[in-house]
Structure formats: structure tokens, C-alpha cells
Amino acid sequence: MSDIDVQRSGDTEPPAPCSGMAQFLWQQLPYVVALVLAIAGVGYTNVSQQPLVGYWEFLALAIGVVCVITKWPEIDGRQAQLRLIWTQALHWVAVLVTMNIILVSGVQQLLPTPATSLVLLTLLALGTFLAGVSACCRCKSPSLASPWPLQSLRSPG
Questions:
Q1: ∠ CA(146), CA(151), CA(154), 5° rounding?
Q2: Residue 121: which residues within 8 A CB-CB, separation 6 or more?
Q3: Which residue, 140, 129, 137, 143, is CA-closest to 67?
Q4: Are 50 and 115 in contact (CB under 8 A)?
Q5: Contact 120/99 with Cβ under 8 angstroms?
Q6: Is the pTM of this model over 0.70?
Q7: Quick one: CA dihedral 107, 110, 116, 118, positive or negative?
Q8: Alpha-carbon distances of 143 from 51, 130, 149, 152, rounded to whole Å
Q9: Do residues 88 and 131 make contact, with C-beta atoms less than 8 angstroms apart?
Q10: HEC letters along 108-138
Q11: Per-residue pLDDT of the chain (157 residues; tens, 9 = 90+)
Q12: Which of 41, 53, 72, 121 has its CA 20 to 30 A from that of 30?
């Protein structure tokens, strides 16, 4: 190697690691996108006065896929991965069935269109929350795995 090559390689600095905040924001990006899409759906429904049946179903499926993708790296073993897929699939199918019950014409006549979009947004929020609780209960933290989290806060003895 020549002196020029040594000097060039000595001048280069290793790339700076991502800051903690940037890494946190990158991890939260799928959830922020889902939140923005949900709020946009409510806004569009309120302006157009037309229910977006397919949009809400797509959004529920997309959030279900995001739940699986974000939890996937933490799961070890094929059996656990299949259990994750099946539990999330069953969970989000239940959310979709509930959403379609709200969208049945007989039920929809009871609610104005803006209220329907808010009910669907609430169902999506509830489904997302329950998917997170379900995923968290399978983690290794004893305080979260216990059905009674406050038991782990008691002093020993």
C-alpha cells in the first residue's frame, strides 16, 4: 500500500451509530403510518359522507401484517412462529367480522356515516391494543406474563 492509501484510510471515520431517538422513531414508523392512514380514513369519510368499506378492511389486514412483522424477529423456533401467525390471523379475522357487522345495512342505518367511521376506527384501535397485549403476554418479563402484574411488585417475604 502506498502512503496515500494509508493516509486516506486513516482519514475516514466509521459511520456514526444511529441515535437512540432515530432508532426509536424508525421502530415506531409502521405504527405511525397506520395511525395516519386511520385518521385519513376518518377524515375522508366525514368529508365524503360515504363509508369506505374496503379501506377499513385493508387497514385492518395491514395492521395485522405489521403486528406479525414487528414481533417476528423476537420469536425463536418454527412452532412459535406458526403460533404467532395463527393467533394474529384469528385475532384480526375476529376484528374484520366485527367491522363487517357494523357495516351491514341494517346496523348502518342506525348510525350516521361519520359515526360509522369512528366506530370502525375504535374497533381498529381496540384490535391493535389487544394484539399488543397478546404479544406482550408471551414475552419473558414476569411482570407482564403474570395475569396479575401487581403480584410481581410486592416485596418478597
A1: 145
A2: 38, 39, 41, 42
A3: 129
A4: no
A5: yes
A6: no
A7: negative
A8: 42, 17, 5, 5
A9: yes
A10: HCCCCHHHHHHHHHHHHHHHHHHHHHHHHHC
A11: 555 555 555 555 555 556 788 888 887 888 888 888 888 888 888 888 877 778 888 988 988 898 888 888 888 889 988 988 988 899 889 999 988 888 887 777 888 877 888 888 888 888 888 887 776 665 544 443 334 343 343 444 4
A12: 53
DSSP one-letter string for 51-85: --HHHHHHHHHHHHHHHHHHHGGG--SHHHHHHHH
User: How many residues can be counted in the chain?
Assistant: 157
From residue 52, alpha-carbon distances to 30, 31, 40 in Å are 21, 21, 11
